[in-house]
Amino acid sequence: MTALTIKNLNVWFGAHHDRVDAVRGANFEVQVGESFGLVGESGSGKSTILKAITGLAPTWSGDISVEGTPLSGAKRDRAFYKTVQMVFQDPYASLHPRHTVDQVLSETLQLHGFKDIDTRVVKLLDDVGLGGKFRFRYPHQISGGQRQRVAVARALAGEPDILLLDEPTSALDVSVQAEILNLLTDLRDEHKLTYLMVSHDLPVIGHMCDRLAVMKDGEIVEVMDSEDLRQGTAKHDYSRSLLAASAAA
Amino acid sequence: MSLLEVENLWVRFPTRQGIFDAVRGVSFNLERERLGIVGESGSGKSMTGRAILRLIRKPGIVEADSIKLEGQNLLDLSEPEMREVRGQKISMVMQDPKFSLNPVMTIGDQIMEAYLLHNNTSKAQARVKAIEMLEAVSIRDPERVMRAYPHEMSGGMGQRIMIAMMLIPDPQILIADEPTSALDVSVQRQVLDIMDGLVKKRGMGLIFISHDLNLVSEFCDRVLIMYAGRIVEVCDADKLHEAKHPYTQGLLNSLPRLDQPKKYLEVLQRDEAWTKEDSVRGTR
Known about the structure:
Strand order of the largest sheet of chain B: 7-8-9-3-10-11
Keywords (chain A): ATP-binding, Nucleotide-binding, Transport
Protein name (chain A): ABC transporter ATP-binding protein
Oligomer: heterodimer
Number of helices of chain A: 10
Radius of gyration of chain B: 20 Å
Radius of gyration of chain A: 18 Å
Family (chain A): Belongs to the ABC transporter superfamily.
Pfam family, one (chain A): ABC_tran
Helix content of chain A: 25-40%
GO biological process, one term (chain A): transmembrane transport
CATH topology of chain A: Rossmann fold
Mean pLDDT of chain B: 88
Mean pLDDT of chain A: 91
Helix content of chain B: 25-40%
CATH architecture of chain A: 3-Layer(aba) Sandwich
């Protein structure tokens, strides 16, 4: 079964002469349990695809379906949020500075309609490798890696099937990045999750994903297996130049 | 005599919990070379760069036995004298061009301002020089860029403009604090190539501060690895992958690699002893 189907997706911002076509004619499918990567330079439209899926970019056309259910417009129902959740790039910006970890998680759990909030908060913190001592801390009292763990815990609160990961480690140090990527690997096994991961870092995508799409100027230029990425057998010129640039750096 | 000699540098910040030492007794020198400083966030690498230019604001405290620029101890200079050094002799490029360019001034005006401040010449002359500088950092159509505002520029162009501005007074030392971290890999290369060319052509000394080990090992001549405010290891950049300190090895091993797929990445195991070791001297 496919977890996500994107067919002929166009996303644009603005109207008339101000119109910017951020994504043009994107097509790809993500199977259940798969980890799929989107790579490209900034401005290539990779994050915009995630925004269109979650309803944060209201102006789009084409077909997006989640587990067989087609989406439309910018409105998403409760069932959608139970299926799809997102982790954002910068944990410094995505957590409320005046809410404790406990508040962040219990509010989310309440919105998902759970009753046993107390036990679930403990369980969530446990799942992401944070002990109970972090429960009543504010975001400024914990490190960047720990914040990103809280953001992941919040995404997991509704027991979703699909996680959209928008550059989840690019604001973190390499040593912390390794911890978060390992955590994501574990969580995917434990919770049978499907990942759609956006990154500009090819080695990270190669490490985390089974397949990936390379984007340039709003278009997907190539969909390939990570194995091809490792072997350096990209077909499209642009993918090859991206690979060369990241191998050199 | 070295271009720059830093002897026993400390940067301290008083906090409610007592004094926090951000940089703890660091010594190194810089010749006409590309010196990399790497470490995680909080390791004191940026503070070291800022301390050299005496850019640490109160209540921060900078202490050192000496910071010598061609024999001249910068700590003895008065603030107006220091202002002569900043820009003229030592320039700094910051991480994000979005925050270091003035948003309400055209690029041309900003570059010309930098030039006119340091040289007693006409505006027309400054304009010629500014265009020349933009060309030096490979900006196509410099006439158009001169009239543009920073928000009309991409990140890579913004960073090249910053470098152009820093190079106008022809400094002897360029301190680049994460100059390419906000840029894409493909643009990163261009900016590095430009900096490399300029360092070679003008015989400048470059201090390149970065958290990206691979980038530093490829781009620099020598690398200082910092941890918790100290230099834990000094090595030649091309031998970084043979580094001996467990911290450096840990950082290198935690990077995902395309040629070595594995299920789990290695996680850096920190050792309390690393923070207690004496700082390694980064001189030669």
